[in-house]
Specification:
The structure holds two protein chains of two kinds.
Chain A (H helix, E strand, L loop, with lengths): L21 H11 L1 H4 L2 H28 L6 H15 L13 H23 L6 H19 L10 E2 L5 E2 L2 E2 L3 H22 L3 H11 L1 H6 L4 H27 L1 E2 L6 H14 L6 H22 L7 H15 L3 H14 L8
Antiparallel strand pairs in A: 1-4, 2-3
Chain B lengths: L17 H8 L1 H19 L4 H7 L2 H32 L6 H19 L2 H23 L7 H23 L15 E10 L5 E7 H23 L1 H11 L1 H6 L4 H26 L6 H16 L4 H21 L4 H15 L9
Antiparallel strand pairs in B: 1-2
Helix pairs in contact in B: 1-2, 4-8, 4-11, 4-12, 4-13, 5-6, 5-7, 5-11, 5-12, 6-11, 8-9, 12-13, 12-14, 13-14
Classes of the chains: A mainly alpha, B mainly alpha.
Chain lengths: 347, 354
C-alpha cells in the first residue's frame, strides 16, 4: 500500500549459484579497462558523467525502491556538496571562497551535505506518502531560487567557476584517466554500499517499513528514525558525486541545482528502473548518450535540435505509462519470455 | 497511514460551529490574531512616528509591500485553489499545474494580441485550459486511478513536455499582457501616507488593475464557497472528498464529477495565468515558479482545503513581498521558513481538519 503503481525493489539479485553473474564480471572488467578502449572524450564526457549521474540517481533509487520515498532532493544534496567545495576550497571567486586545502574542504563539504540531506529528510518524513515528492520538490526549488538570489555566499546567478579537482600523490586528478577512475571508484563504492545495506538489518527493516509501516512500528521499530537514517545514507552517496560533478564541469551555478536537473535525476532513475541498484546507471547512460547525441537523432526525426527536453519528457512518459519498472523491467520480462521459466529468476 | 484527508471546506471531522465556536475553543490564538490585525490596521492607518520610520523605513514602502503581498496572495490563491481542489477529490498531485497556469497566460496573450479584448482572454484561457484538463483526466488519469505515485510521475512527464512545447510555440521571450485602458493607471486610495507641513495630505496611489484583480479573486473565492456549500454539485464534491467509494457506490456518476472538477481546477489555473500575465510577466520558468508557489501554499494551508489555500496564499504572498523589500537576498527563505515551521508543528497544514 505504500507505493501503488510502481514495482517494489527486491533484495534478491538475479544470480546463479555462483553469487555474481558472468555479465556482472564482464561489465566490471570492461569498466576497469575502459581507458584502454575509449577516447578521452568518451572516458570523461560519456562514462564519467554517466557514473556521476548514475550515483546521484542511485541515491534516489535507494530511497524510492527500498524506502518507498520518492525524494527529489538528491540532486540538490549533490549540488549543495558542490557548492560547499567551491565555497570552502578554491574557485575563481576569490572573495567568497575560503581557500581551504582539498583534504579539509572535501570531507567538510560531504559532512555538511549529509547534514543538509538529513534535515531535508527529517522535514519530508513529517508526512508520508505522496507528500514526500511535494515537500522535497519544494525544498529543491527553494534551494535553487535561494542560490540564484544570494550573492554574498552562493555567488548569485553566475555561481562559481574554476572549481577543479586537486593534484595529489603526484597525480593530476583533473586529467581524463585519473578522473574516470575517481568517478568509477565512487560509483563502485556507492553501488557496493547499497547492495550491502539492503541486506543488512537496517535495509531489511527499511523495506519492511516501506511495505507496512504500521506493522513495523508495532514490532518496535522506530519508523521515523529509519526513514531519516535512509535520507542520511542517500545524502552520503550523492554528496561525493556532486563534488565530482562540480569538478567535471569546472563550475557550479544555480542551473546545476535547477528544477530541470532535479527532475532529470528522477527521470534517470525511473527510466532505468527503480527495481535494482543497476537501474539508475542504465538510465544515466541512456540519458548522457541522448544528451550528447540527441541532435542527430532529432534531426533524423525531422525536428529542431533544441527539442531535447521534449524527447526526455516523452521518453519518461512512455516509461511511466507502459513500463513502470523501467528498462530493467523490460529487459527482465524479455529475458523471461526468451529463456522460459528457468532463465529469469530475480523476481 | 492511509492518506485520508482533505476536507474541501469546513469539515465534517469535527462539528463546525462557525468562527464563534473556534474562538471559544482557542481563546488565546484568537486574541493573538485579533491583536495582530489591530496592529496591522494601526500601521496602515496611523501617521507614523519618527521612531517607527527609523525601524521600518518609509511608510509608503511598508504599505506598498503590504498591498502587493495581499494582491500577490490573491493570485496565488487562484493558482493553488485548482491544485488543492483536484487533490482533495482525486488524490492527484498535479505537478503539471504550473504548466496549465503558463499555458493559460500564453493563450490570453495571443488572444489579446489578436483581438484586443482583455476580458475575452479570460474566457479563452479558462475554456481552453479546462479542455486540456478534461482530456488529461479522461485520457490519462482515469486509467490509473488509485495509483497516486504513478499519476504524479505522469504529471511530471507532462510538465516537461508542456514546457518544451510552449517554448517551441512562444519562444523564450518575456510577455506581458497589456492592461486595458479602463484599468490602466493608479488609483488614489484613502490610505494617508504623510501629512505635509502645509497641511496637504498625501494619499497612497496604487495600480488600479491590481486592486481590481484582487477583488475579482475574492469574488471567485466567495463564489467557490457558495458553489461547494450551497449547490448539489458542491455537495457531491464534499461527499467525494470525505468518502469516494461510498459516493460511487451510491450511484453518483463519479467519473463525470472527477472530469468536471479536474476541468474546473485546470481552468482556474489558466485564468490565474491571465492574471499573472497582466500584473507580472510570462516566460519559460514561470510554470515552475507558480508550481512551487502552489506547493508551498497548499503545504502551509493544508492539502485539499480551500480556506487553507486562501490563508496559505495570503501568508506566502506577504512573506515574499516583505522579504523582497526588507531582505532582498534572503527573500525566498521567508516563505520557505513558513513552510518548515508549519511542517514542524502542524504537518497536516494550518487549516486541515484531520
Amino acid at each position: 500500500m505504500a507505493r501503488p503503481g510502481l514495482p517494489t525493489a527486491t533484495t534478491a539479485p538475479a544470480t546463479g549459484a555462483g553469487g555474481i553473474s558472468p555479465a556482472a564480471w564482464i561489465t566490471a572488467l570492461v569498466l576497469l579497462f575502459m581507458p584502454a578502449l575509449a577516447s578521452d572524450f568518451f572516458l570523461v564526457q560519456v562514462f564519467g558523467w554517466t557514473l556521476i549521474l548514475g550515483t546521484i540517481a542511485l541515491s534516489l533509487q535507494f530511497l524510492a525502491g527500498y524506502g518507498g520515498m520518492v525524494s527529489l532532493v538528491q540532486m540538490t544534496v549533490a549540488g549543495f556538496a558542490g557548492y560547499m567545495v567551491a565555497i570552502l576550497g578554491t574557485s575563481g571567486l576569490g572573495q567568497i571562497s575560503l581557500g581551504w586545502p582539498f583534504w579539509l574542504a572535501v570531507p567538510v563539504a560531504i559532512l555538511l551535505a549529509v547534514v543538509f540531506g538529513t534535515l531535508s529528510g527529517a522535514l519530508a518524513v513529517r508526512t508520508a506518502g505522496i507528500y514526500t515528492i511535494m515537500i522535497t520538490l519544494a525544498i529543491a526549488a527553494a534551494f535553487f531560487y535561494f542560490t540564484r538570489q544570494n550573492e554574498t555566499v552562493f555567488g548569485g546567478f553566475l555561481g562559481f567557476n574554476g572549481v577543479r579537482a586537486p593534484v595529489f600523490w603526484g597525480i593530476d586528478w583533473r586529467s581524463p584517466v585519473p578522473f574516470y577512475y575517481l568517478c568509477l571508484g565512487w560509483a563502485a563504492i556507492a553501488f557496493g554500499l547499497v547492495t550491502w545495506v539492503i541486506r543488512a538489518p537496517f535495509g531489511l527493516a527499511l523495506q519492511g517499513i516501506r511495505d507496512n509501516p504500521r506493522r513495523m512500528a508495532a514490532l518496535g521499530f522506530d519508523v521515523t528514525a529509519h526513514r531519516i537514517a535512509a535520507y542520511a545514507f542517500a545524502a552520503f552517496l550523492a554528496a561525493p558525486a556532486g563534488i565530482l560533478l562540480t569538478w567535471l564541469n569546472g563550475q557550479i551555478a544555480p542551473g546545476t541545482v535547477g528544477i530541470g536537473p532535479v527532475i532529470d535525476i528522477l527521470v534517470i532513475a525511473v527510466v532505468g528502473g527503480l527495481g535494482r541498484p543497476i537501474g539508475p546507471f542504465i538510465g544515466a547512460l541512456l540519458y548522457v548518450l541522448l544528451r550528447l547525441f540527441a541532435l542527430d537523432l532529432l534531426v533524423a526525426l525531422g525536428l529542431s535540435g533544441q527539442r531535447f527536453q521534449l524527447l526526455i519528457g516523452i521518453g519518461f512518459l512512455l516509461t511511466v505509462l507502459f513500463s513502470p519498472d523501467g528498462i530493467l523491467g523490460l529487459w527482465e520480462r524479455a529475458q523471461q519470455r526468451w529463456a522460459g521459466p528457468s532463465g529469469g529468476g530475480g523476481r | 497511514m492511509a492518506e485520508t484527508g482533505g476536507q474541501v471546506w469546513g469539515g465534517s471531522g469535527e462539528p463546525t460551529r462557525g468562527p464563534l465556536g473556534w474562538i471559544e475553543r482557542r481563546p488565546l490564538a484568537a486574541l493573538l490574531i485579533a491583536l495582530a490585525v489591530a496592529l496591522l490596521l494601526w500601521l496602515v492607518l496611523a501617521d507614523w512616528p519618527e521612531e517607527l520610520e527609523r525601524w521600518l523605513g518609509r511608510k509608503r514602502v511598508f504599505v506598498s509591500a503590504l498591498l502587493n503581498g495581499i494582491t500577490l496572495g490573491g493570485l496565488y490563491f487562484l493558482v493553488a485553489t485548482g491544485f488543492t481542489l483536484i487533490f482533495g477529490l482525486m488524490r492527484n498531485v498535479n505537478l503539471a499545474h504550473g504548466s496549465l497556469y503558463l499555458f493559460g497566460g500564453y493563450l490570453a496573450y495571443t488572444t489579446v494580441q489578436a483581438t484586443g479584448l482583455w476580458l475575452l482572454s479570460y474566457l479563452v484561457a479558462f475554456v481552453l485550459v479546462a479542455i486540456v484538463g478534461l482530456l488529461l483526466q479522461v485520457l490519462v488519469f482515469r486509467h490509473m486511478e488509485g495509483q497516486e505515485l504513478r499519476q504524479t510521475l505522469v504529471t511530471i512527464g507532462l510538465s516537461i513536455v508542456f514546457a518544451d512545447l510552449m517554448l517551441w510555440v512562444w519562444g523564450g521571450d518575456f510577455y506581458q499582457i497589456p492592461t486595458p485602458e479602463w484599468l490602466a493607471g493608479p488609483i488614489d486610495t484613502p490610505i494617508v501616507l504623510d501629512v505635509r507641513s502645509n497641511g496637504e495630505v498625501v494619499y497612497l496611489r496604487y495600480p488600479r488593475v491590481r486592486l481590481v484583480i484582487f477583488l475579482a479573486s475574492v469574488v471567485i473565492g466567495v463564489l467557490l464557497w457558495l458553489a461547494i456549500n450551497k449547490t448539489k454539485v458542491g455537495m457531491l464534491i464534499r461527499a467525494g472528498v470525505d468518502d469516494r467509494e461510498m459516493l460511487a457506490a451510491s450511484g453518483v456518476p463519479i467519473q463525470l464529477l472527477f472530469a468536471l472538477v479536474f476541468a474546473f481546477g485546470a481552468g482556474l489555473a489558466g485564468m490565474a495565468g491571465v492574471v499573472g500575465g497582466t500584473f507580472q510577466s510570462l516566460s519559460p520558468g514561470e510554470d515552475t515558479r507558480f508550481l512551487l508557489a502552489s506547493l508551498v501554499v497548499v503545504i502551509v494551508g493544508g492539502l485539499g482545503s480551500i480556506p487553507g489555500a486562501a490563508l496559505g496564499a495570503l501568508l506566502i504572498g506577504l512573506a515574499e513581498q516583505f522579504g523582497s523589500v526588507y531582505l532582498p537576498t534572503y527573500a525566498i527563505v521567508f516563505s520557505f521558513l513558513i513552510m518548515v515551521l508549519v511542517l514542524a508543528f502542524r504537518p497536516q497544514g494550518l487549516l486541515s481538519v484531520r
